[in-house]
Design a protein that fits this description.
Blueprint: H1 2-34, E1 44-48, H2 54-64, H3 70-79, E2 89-93, H4 99-108, E3 114-117, H5 124-132, H6 139-146, H7 149-153, E4 170-173, H8 179-193, H9 196-204, H10 209-222, H11 229-242, H12 249-256, H13 266-269, H14 293-300, E5 309-312, E6 320-323, H15 326-342
Helix pairs in contact: 5-6, 10-11, 10-14, 11-14
């Protein structure tokens, strides 16, 4: 009887020992897997929209990250109640993060900001498309806002001048930011940009900030090279001071809706539009493109000269000949027209 008891005890202890070893091994494996850092060559981003389901989030992560264990990842996610706490946004997963850290970031809504940029934008359509390509934002929704007279009025602007509120730069914003929040941010950046120094310079040349942006937009469309910005700005200001029409070809291209025109014909000059500065006095009602900071600052510091006319050089380099008299301008224009004819450029 005593031997039987000893034998049973041995079996029990052996079994317990084996199970303990197995439990320790499993525990070690789970723990080492749970806290094993992911290896990434570069930071990757997970994008979650309002309609994104939990399974879609997991699938996106698995596609971009070689997780130590897909099953354990989902076990952790469920234990941390992430399936019930999905938040929209753009989330960064970096090299060395563990699975619990990944889930914690997603669950907390701790987004990684987008570096929003927009440069060389001519129209509201271009702008809306460029911004929506970088954010979780519908381009039509943004375009509709920019074309809504009542909404734009709340910012002290109109549908012609609203593009001046967008100062080309790099801005950190959340990927899922709303149209309203983005516009309030742009208004804030606009107010910051137009500090007392810039406003004083605008006043000195007799223009409002919006008018400076409008002038700068024409200057940038005219010039291929930025070193000509101050010269061209000075030329148009000279015309404004003398009460002469600007007769700026880029405003005609804008009015016609064709920026590719190399040759402005009489039929183009006759187009009925408030933007046609051959038919209307003063500046057009708003910018014909979104001017750069460089263009705005150059227009605020125009070169002091007596030029009243400009014409592209006949070498087709993109640079200009400037003139003080109409006779001189006609000669320059004739050379340019002759060069276009030789190159068979008729429009």
């Amino acid at each position: 009887m005593a031997n039987t008891k000893k034998k049973r005890l041995k079996i029990f202890l052996y079994t317990f020992g084996v199970l303990a070893v197995i439990a320790i091994a499993i525990g070690y494996y789970v723990r080492s897997t749970v806290f094993k850092p992911v290896e990434l060559a570069e930071t990757i981003y997970i994008y979650i929209e309002p309609s994104t389901q939990y399974d879609e989030v997991v699938a996106q992560i698995k596609k971009k990250v070689n997780l130590p264990s897909d099953k354990i990842f989902q076990m952790i996610a469920e234990r941390m109640k992430y399936p019930e706490s999905i938040k929209t946004g753009r989330y960064a997963i970096k090299d060395g993060m563990t699975m619990p850290e990944i889930i914690r970031i997603l669950r907390s809504g701790n987004q990684s900001a987008v570096k929003l940029t927009f440069n060389n934008m001519r129209t509201k359509e271009n702008l809306a498309g460029r911004i929506s390509s970088q954010l979780m934002m519908d381009s039509l929704a943004l375009l509709t806002w920019l074309s809504d007279e009542k909404k734009v009025e709340e910012f002290g602007l109109d549908t012609n001048t609203v593009v001046a509120m967008f100062i080309p730069n790099t801005y950190e914003v959340y990927w899922d930011t709303s149209v309203d929040k983005l516009l309030k941010r742009m208004k804030h950046e606009y107010a910051t940009f137009w500090n007392e120094s810039r406003k004083a310079k605008a006043k000195e040349i007799g223009l409002t900030p919006i008018e400076v942006s409008t002038l700068a937009s024409i200057v940038e469309e005219e010039a291929t090279y930025s070193d000509e910005y101050p010269i061209i700005a000075g030329l148009y200001l000279n015309r404004l001071k003398r009460g002469q029409r600007l007769e700026a070809d880029p405003t005609v291209k804008f009015a016609v809706g064709d920026f590719s025109l190399r040759r402005i014909l009489y039929k183009h000059l006759e187009v009925e539009s408030p933007y046609n500065t051959y038919r209307n006095d003063g500046l057009p009602p708003g910018p014909i493109r979104i001017p750069s900071i460089k263009g705005i600052d150059a227009s605020l510091s125009p070169q002091d000269h007596k030029y009243l006319f400009m014409c592209a050089k006949d070498d087709l380099s993109g640079r200009h000949n400037f003139a003080t008299t109409h006779a001189e301008h006609i000669r320059n224009a004739a050379k340019y027209q002759r060069a276009l004819n030789e190159k068979k450029i008729y429009k």
